[in-house]
Amino acid sequence: MAVYNKVETREAPLGSKGILRWLRENLFSSPLNSAMTVLGIAILLWIIPPFIKWSIIDANFAGHTRADCTGDGACWVFVKAKLSMFMYGFYPEADRWRVNLAYALFFVVIAAFKLLKKSGIKILIATLYFIVAFILIRGGYFGLDVIDTNKWGGLMLTIVISAVGIVGSFPIGILFAFGRASKLPIIKSVSVTYIEFIRGVPLITILFMSSVILPLFFPEGVTFDKLLRALIGITFFQAAYIAEIIRGGMQAIPSGQYEAADAVGLSYWQKMLLVILPQALKVAIPNLVGSFIALFQDTTLVLIIGLFDLLAMVQLTGSDSHWLGFETEGYVFVTIIFWVFCYSMSVYSKSLEKRFNTNLK
Amino acid sequence: MFALLRDRKVRGILFQLLTVIGLVAFLWYIGTNTVHNIEQRGIQTGFGFLNGTAGFAINDTPIAYNETYTHGRVFLVGLLNTLIISFVVIILSSLLGLIIGVLRLSNNWLIAKLSSAYIDLFRNIPILLQILFWYNVVLATLPSPRKSIEFFGSIFINNRGFYVPKPALNSTTISMIVAVFLAIIIIFFLNRWSNKRHENTGEEFPVLLTGIGLIIGLPIIAYFIGGADMNPSYPVLKGFNFRGGKTFYPEFLALAFALTIYTATFIAEAVRSGIEAVSKGQKEAAASIGLSGYQALKLVVLPQAIRIAIPPTINQYLNIVKNSSLATAIGYPELVTVFAGTSLNQVGQAIEIISMTMLVYLVVSLAVSALLNWINFKMKIKER
């Protein structure tokens, strides 16, 4: 009778499991790979420790004046002292609650959007919000002092420009997208010309045009303030890009949808607004968010025509004679703000893309 | 009457008629206002100003220019600088974007994460902010000319720019330039010949290696044939600044660095999506018919990946040309800075100057879309 000895299973060889295996497979699978890993670590060591040393270890956080900047590293006291400039520009301190209230109301509106179902009410609320926010920030009604637009600045101005650009360009963009998809030759050629013209020139030339040429277009006495001119330029610029994105979405709609809408007897506008647009928007949403990120970044260009947005504040505060030599801190601070806004929008657009992807493929 | 209005065709014509009337009325309105305003303000009209003396200096000019030249010449200088910066950035960002895009898909975890961190970091910072950061922070904190960072005693880096030796335009340099073009032409025909031979006999010819050899080897041979003397002018510190050699000004460098780093993120994404779009089955099929890794890449993956990656990449090239106009924030003398900026301030003829500037960008963008259409047509998968 054979005797069977039970052989204990051996431990897996070192390096074929756990963290070692992961390291070997992902970092050191070949000589070339190992070399690249070393290079990657070298790059990280070259960038990160000096940056942490500058921004945290050697940096000054406490204090309020220039005299508190004693370390070799960054002096965040500068950002602290100028924070209100970065956030509100020259907006009077006593009235800043109005801007903050407008911000707060925005979140209330978002919350309301989550709860409400009917799009008609949503549009009404959004419109109301814009009127209320405008009255709050600019004033002139209900006993609120008028705050001239040349006092607006910093992050608040950046947000105002992006918000107006996004909201204003949307309906115009939709109209031009319809125009470009239209079968009527004149409507189509006007739309194509507009879209291709705008997309062919840089935003800065549009801004120059709206700030230098636009006043010539209207009779004497009609004056636009600087901000309004920039807003007009940015809105019409953005509209062309929105139009192209929505047209892309419309091309993804099968022609059966158009035919079905015609067959049940819908008029052109009913067909476009009730059947085609909702589907096209759904397809286009990731690209729309992408173009809003681009718009948010493009708002920085208004500094070239003399508005004081968030980026312009760096140059302005950096040239304060009490605080010379702290531009770097300003740039880093503003970079972080822009990056957080843009990155969170792009993460959002990726999650939307995933959510909408399911029923398309 | 109302029955007629319900006819789709009639309504279409009516609607278009209304649009035309509205458009013409609008144009007429702004046209008359503009003419009135221009008269009122005493602004001159017409393109006569192009022959007027500019009277301002430009520090970085590819062609001869000084204060006595005309605004027409300023336009030309600006246009050339726009084209130069665009060309340089297109080359650099393509290389960087290609490298980052490929590394992003590397099976080395660290490298892949670093590449995607690079992309996420730089594409989410406004380009104008990056340009200003390079110009006002990085390049401005370089040492002064007297304390320049020095390489080989002939390359100097300081806060006034990068100074490198500049080869003289003599027989050596000219023959080397000719050799480069010659190499490109030879490689082109070599490639065609090898493709044909491959189709007929199945034999492979190492085009890539031969090509690299040619493009390096021919200029070296030409260097000795042409007299082996480039006779370069070296930058020398005289007084407070360097003279001689070729200077890359901080404005140019800041713009080139920022645009390259920013645009490379988009090109990298195009490259990545192109490679990812090639289905796994294609790679497996290539392996199963016995193609080597390099052959599979060259014959199966890349031709399909390029088809997807090229259109967005060319769009980025167009964006580079348009974004080069941001130079006006730091004063690199390209079209918008010198022509739509300085010339406009002097002459005051906004309509003519801005129209000319816009026209330049429009021509470039129309040319690029034509190119894109042609490429799309060429690359369309020919289904049988």
How would you describe the overall organization of this protein?
The complex is a heterodimer of chains A (361) and B (384). Chain A is an all-alpha fold. Chain A has one domain: MetI-like (MetI-like fold, Orthogonal Bundle), CATH 1.10.3720.10. Helix content of chain A is 70%, strand content 0%. Chain A is extended and about 105 Å long. Chain A starts with 17 loop residues before the first helix and ends with a helix. By secondary structure, chain B is mainly alpha-helical. Chain B has two domains: 2-42; 71-166 and 232-379, MetI-like (MetI-like fold, Orthogonal Bundle), CATH 1.10.3720. In chain B, strand 4 (236-238) and strand 5 (241-243) form a beta hairpin. In chain B, helix 3 runs antiparallel to helix 4, helix 3 crosses helix 8 and helix 3 packs antiparallel against helix 11. At the A-B interface, helix 2, helix 7, helix 8, helix 11 and helix 12 of A face helix 2, helix 4, helix 5, helix 11 and helix 12 of B.
